[in-house]
């Protein structure tokens, strides 16, 4: 019994001591002498020094270290960009000979296509061919207009606008006939309309079609030389 009482007494004394120490520690902050730092209790000095060190570390991180980290990240991004650019240029350099061969092949094919273009347009023969194709398809022309030439870098376009009347299958035969003509002809911006809708009879439709034929640009210089020679003679 005496031993248990003694243990309980010691336990109570230690708890009260811990409570007392904490309270004393709090009071020590409230009664500090700002003019005499040396008289501050040791726990207070340790706490103040720890807070100062923490503030210095935080400032060191927030100011120079954080800015250096941003610079490092920016340098890493720039490094990735430069590496990507290097890989792309290295790939181009590795395949340079293949690219040169492809360019030479494309130039040869392009020149071959240009050589297939006629040296002159021969509009009258083309219009006659369009007219004969229309007659064979049983359509009735309203207008065939030869428009102004359009000069491009390597060739010259000759637009021809066609307006005609007919039925769907007749227009289909006419388009097929144009594609079979011995000239390069392309078709653009066609429009088919029914001016008088009716359920009693098969409607006669309006067709407006923009076609283009092409000729070599060299024909211009050749024709000019020929005209000059003829004038001189």
How does this model look, in words?
With about 230 residues, this protein is of the alpha+beta class. It folds into two domains: about 25-90, no CATH class; about 125-220, Ribosomal protein S6/Translation elongation factor EF1B (Alpha-Beta Plaits, 2-Layer Sandwich), CATH 3.30.70. The chain is about 60% helix and about 20% strand. It contains six helices and five strands. The protein has helices spanning about 1-30, 40-95, 95-115, 125-135, 170-180, 220-230; strands at about 140-145, 150, 155-165, 185-195, 205-215. Strands 1, 2, 3, 4 and 5 form a five-stranded antiparallel beta sheet that branches.
Give a quick summary of the entry.
With 233 residues, the protein is an alpha+beta fold. It is 62% helix and 18% strand.
Which terms summarize this structure?
Alpha-Beta Plaits, single chain, 2 domains, 233 residues, alpha+beta, elongated, disordered C terminus
Secondary structure elements and their pairing?
Blueprint (H helix, E strand, L loop, with lengths): L1 H29 L11 H53 L1 H21 L6 H14 L3 E7 L3 E2 L3 E12 L1 H12 L5 E9 L11 E12 L1 H15 L1
Antiparallel strand pairs: 1-3, 2-3, 3-5, 4-5
Tally of strands: 5
Question: Major sheet: size, sense and barrel closure?
Answer: 5 strands, antiparallel
Write down the CATH topology of the largest domain. Alpha-Beta Plaits
Helix/strand-derived class? Answer: alpha+beta
Number of helices: 6
Q: Oligomeric status of the shown chains?
A: single chain
CATH homologous superfamily grouping of the largest domain: Ribosomal protein S6/Translation elongation factor EF1B
Strand content: 15-25%
The assigned CATH architecture of the largest domain is 2-Layer Sandwich
Radius of gyration: 48 Å
Number of domains: 2
CATH class of the largest domain: Alpha Beta
């Amino acid at each position: 019994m005496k031993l248990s009482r003694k243990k309980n007494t010691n336990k109570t004394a230690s708890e009260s001591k811990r409570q007392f120490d904490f309270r004393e520690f709090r009071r020590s902050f409230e009664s500090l002498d700002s003019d005499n730092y040396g008289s501050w209790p040791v726990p207070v000095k340790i706490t103040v020094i720890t807070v100062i060190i923490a503030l210095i570390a935080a400032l060191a991180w927030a100011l120079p270290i954080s800015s250096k980290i941003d610079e490092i990240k920016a340098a890493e991004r720039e490094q990735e960009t430069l590496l990507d650019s290097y890989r792309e240029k290295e790939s181009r350099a590795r395949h340079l000979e293949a690219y040169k061969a492809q360019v030479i092949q494309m130039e040869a094919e392009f020149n071959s296509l240009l050589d297939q273009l006629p040296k002159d347009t021969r509009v009258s023969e083309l219009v006659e061919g369009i007219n004969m194709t229309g007659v064979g398809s049983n359509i009735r022309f309203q207008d065939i207009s030869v428009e102004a030439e359009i000069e491009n870098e390597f060739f010259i376009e000759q637009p021809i606008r066609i307006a005609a009347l007919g039925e769907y299958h007749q227009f289909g035969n006419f388009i097929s006939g144009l594609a079979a003509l011995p000239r390069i002809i392309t078709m653009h911006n066609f429009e088919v309309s029914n001016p008088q809708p009716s359920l009693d009879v098969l409607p006669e439709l309006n067709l407006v079609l923009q076609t283009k034929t092409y000729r070599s640009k060299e024909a211009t210089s050749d024709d000019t030389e020929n005209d000059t020679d003829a004038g001189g003679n």
